[in-house]
Amino acid sequence: MPKAKTNNKEIEGKLIAVEGLDGSGKSTQIRLLKRWLELEGYKVFFTEWNSSELVKKATRKGKKKKLLTPTSFSLIHATDFADRYERQILPLLKGGYLVLADRYVYTAYARDSVRGCDRDWLRKLYRFARKPDITFFFELPLEVALGRILEGRPALKYHEAGMDLGFSKDPYESFRIFQGRIYEEYGRIFKEFPAERINACDPSEMQQARMRETVRRIIDLKKFKLRRGGKS
User: Fold this and answer.
1) Angle at alpha carbon of residue 78, lines to 96 and 69, rounded to 5°
2) Does any domain span residue 229?
3) Ordered alpha helix ranges (H), the chain
């Protein structure tokens, strides 16, 4: 994994990340933001959590055979992130793109801490990652988030429900406990790191308008315009 922090003076691009509980609507909103920026003619790249081809097979095998300890689980996700960061995120930031991330290092801070990993160790593990220029944190009451996720879902996956942590033998109860602890951890994280808070109970149009206004206010968008013909 990369060892040193990136010098932000070398970076022409801007990084926008969304965080929040499952069911908070953050993925929908970041994709709407991406579409808006594309239609406005800006250079945009999108990346999402746990999507590197490099470690997908190892992750699937470890989950299927239930071989993952909290530390190995954390390291697999860190490897996934480091691969995407080095191959996608950092080069495109240096290339002057707006990089939109559906979840960032804060997801690891929350989930892995709940799984028992040391908070300081996690921050050191991801110390190479540049801090986002904007982080949107989608705030939603826990019970509302749980209702959205569980509505109509036939089954929960073993690790998704936190069954590996022994909270409960019932996957739905385990999931509630797991998500509740992640919810509490997010509260700690965003006292430590700056974030633009979005009320995820507001109408979707209102949330999107707030995001666009924030992006316009913080980022000089004209620097990211594509030239005619699609080239920068």
Assistant:
1) 165
2) no
3) 26-39, 56-64, 70-84, 90-94, 105-114, 119-125, 142-150, 171-192, 204-218
Using CA atoms, how far residue 20 sits from 9, 138, 174, 187, in Å, is 29, 5, 19, 10
Q: How many domains does the chain have?
A: 1
The three-state secondary structure class of 162 is coil
Q: Cα–Cα distance between 225 and 228 in angstroms, integer?
A: 9
Residue type at 15 in one-letter notation: L
Could you say which DSSP state residue 193 is in?
S
Residue 231 lies in a domain: no
Mean confidence (pLDDT) of the chain: 89
Domain of residue 184, residue span: 11-224
Sign, CA torsion 61/67/70/71: negative
d(C-alpha 190, C-alpha 106), whole Å? 9
Q: What backbone torsions phi and psi does residue 135 show, to the nearest 5 degrees?
A: -115, 120
Q: What are phi and psi of 29, to 5 degrees?
A: -70, -40
Report phi then psi at 138, rounded to 5. -90, 110
CATH number at residue 126: 3.40.50.300
pTM for the model: 0.88
In a domain, 4, yes or no: no
Instruction: Please answer whether residues 55 and 109 qualify as being in contact, where contact means their C-beta atoms are separated by less than 8 angstroms.
Output: no
Q: Does the pLDDT of residue 4 top 80, yes or no?
A: no
Mean pLDDT (whole number) for 119-130 = 97
Q: Beta-carbon neighbour count of residue 60 at 10 Å? A: 10
Do 157 and 90 contact (CB within 8 A), yes or no? no
